Structure formats: structure tokens, C-alpha cells
């Protein structure tokens, strides 16, 4: 019985994929395509953990880096303006104020540190200065993981702090909480703990909290240098490309024939 095969059109033929070049990307942007859309969905599935019931806001890695650079440039300009200003000279008849520590003059006159400390009345604690940075970056991983590797300008805030019945927010968080023009950013390595922490923040009345989408894994992929200090954990390292060497197969030899008797 003869089976008639359907002839495929040239445009419908599938190009066989070679795993050796699967990590190679196109350098020319040809616009939107189905392949790019599927690649974006796959990237979101691997690096992001979106949930339909999220009550917090997200911050992209590129937006966060722009914010960090803008704050750094503003501080550099402020420092240059302070250096350009000339210090105001003191009048000749005025002397610098005395401090609690003994100086050479006090030692000559027989006044030591203990005498000054005993006579000086106790001063109330100085009030806290308002935050100068528009954002507060918190690392919700353990303290050991934070010391090994963290994003620059970040502060350690282990997620276990939220399990306390009281005093679960630090003074820095209280200074930034719901303050106009200021935000709180939470992150971890790959969104395994930060979404839960951001949800608890919102449930406890902190409305200006943001989650760094993708965590350090996406941040290192977008900006591999200058933004993260320390040695990256294995969960943040990109998966290595497939090996270009083909597996060397051992040649198969035919089985040896049994020795035949030699006729005499």
C-alpha cells in the first residue's frame, strides 16, 4: 500500500536547533516577535514570582540603579559646594568651646577628665536628623548572608524581625515609613523571602514599601559590576551555557570472532 506524504511548504519547515548555539542572542533588534514574547515569559517564570494577590508595589532593577546614581550625583555636587565655601574665621577674643575631654591647657592647670565629667551636667540625647536619602534599602536575608554579599547602600534587616510581637521595626524604618518623597525597598537573592516581608510591611501600615523585582539575581545580570559588593551566592549566578564540545563517544568495535582451528 502506497502512502502519500504531504509535502511541506518551505516556510513551514522547522529549523533544527543546535544546543551548542542556544545561548547566542541576536545583536540587531528587529522589533516585537513571538519568540521575544515567549522568551520574556520564560524569563519572568524563572526570575520573578508574580502573584495575582500582591498588595505591595514593585521596582525594576533599572529604575533602582537610576535612583542610586541620581542620589550619588546629588551628594557629590553638595560636597563640592561645601568644599568651595571658605570657613568663617573666629574673632580674636573668642576661643573654641571646651569639650569634655581634657586638653593640654586643662592638664597644665590640674584639671583632668574625671573632674570635668563630674562637674558637667548630663545632657539629653540629641534629636535624630531627618533622612537625607530618598530611599531606604533593606536586605531581608540573614545577617551572615548580608555580610558575605549585599547591594551597596543596603542595611541588614533579617525577615525574622517581623515575627516579634513588638519593636519589629527599626528606627530607620520608622523614619521612612509613609514619609512623603521617601520609599522603603526590600530585596533578597531571588524573591524567596522578600515578597512575604513586603506583604507584612503593608499589613502593618507601611504603604511606601517596594519590592526589588528579581532580587540580586536580576540586578547582577543587568549590572554585573559596581552595584553589588562581596561574593555572590550560587543562587544569583547565571547558569553556564551548554558545553560546545560534543560528547566524545567511544568507538564501537565489532565483537571478536572466536579462533578457528587450523587444519593440519
UniProtKB/TrEMBL annotation:
Main subcellular location: cytoplasm
GO CC entries: centrosome; ciliary basal body
Subcellular location: Cytoplasm, Cytoskeleton, Cilium basal body; Cytoplasm, Cytoskeleton, Microtubule organizing center, Centrosome
InterPro entries: CEP41, Rhodanese-like_dom, Rhodanese-like_dom_sf
Upper taxonomic lineage: Eukaryota, Metazoa, Porifera, Demospongiae, Heteroscleromorpha
Domain of life: Eukaryota
Example GO BP: cilium assembly
Keywords associated with the record: Cell projection, Cilium, Cilium biogenesis/degradation, Cytoplasm, Cytoskeleton, Protein transport, Transport
Comp. bias intervals (Pro residues): 122-133, 253-264
Family from the record: Belongs to the CEP41 family.
Stated name of the protein: Centrosomal protein of 41 kDa
Keyword Disulfide bond attributed: no
Annotated Rhodanese domain residues: 131-228
Amino acid at each position: 500500500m502506497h502512502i502519500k506524504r504531504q509535502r511541506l511548504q518551505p516556510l513551514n519547515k522547522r529549523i533544527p536547533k543546535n544546543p551548542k548555539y542556544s545561548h547566542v542572542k541576536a545583536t540587531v533588534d528587529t522589533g516585537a516577535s513571538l519568540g521575544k514574547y515567549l522568551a520574556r515569559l520564560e524569563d519572568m517564570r524563572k526570575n520573578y514570582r508574580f502573584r495575582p494577590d500582591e498588595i505591595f508595589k514593585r521596582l525594576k532593577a533599572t529604575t533602582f540603579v537610576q535612583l542610586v546614581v541620581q542620589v550619588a550625583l546629588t551628594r557629590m555636587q553638595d560636597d563640592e559646594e561645601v568644599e568651595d565655601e571658605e570657613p568663617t574665621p573666629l574673632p580674636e577674643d573668642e576661643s573654641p568651646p571646651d569639650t569634655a575631654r581634657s586638653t593640654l591647657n586643662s592638664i597644665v592647670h590640674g584639671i583632668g577628665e574625671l573632674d570635668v565629667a563630674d562637674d558637667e551636667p548630663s545632657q539629653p540625647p540629641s534629636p535624630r536628623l531627618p533622612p537625607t536619602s530618598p530611599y531606604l534599602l533593606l536586605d531581608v536575608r540573614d545577617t551572615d548572608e548580608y555580610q558575605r554579599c549585599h547591594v551597596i547602600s543596603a542595611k541588614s534587616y533579617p525577615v525574622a524581625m517581623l515575627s516579634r510581637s513588638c519593636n519589629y521595626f527599626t528606627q530607620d524604618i520608622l523614619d521612612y515609613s509613609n514619609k512623603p518623597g521617601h520609599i522603603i525597598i526590600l530585596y533578597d537573592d531571588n524573591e524567596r523571602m522578600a515578597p512575604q516581608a513586603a506583604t507584612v510591611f503593608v499589613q502593618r501600615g507601611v504603604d511606601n514599601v517596594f519590592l526589588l523585582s528579581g532580587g540580586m539575581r536580576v540586578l547582577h545580570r543587568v549590572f554585573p559590576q559596581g552595584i553589588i559588593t562581596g561574593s555572590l551566592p550560587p543562587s544569583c549566578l547565571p547558569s553556564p551555557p551548554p558545553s560546545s564540545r560534543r560528547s566524545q563517544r567511544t568507538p564501537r568495535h565489532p565483537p571478536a570472532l572466536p579462533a578457528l582451528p587450523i587444519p593440519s
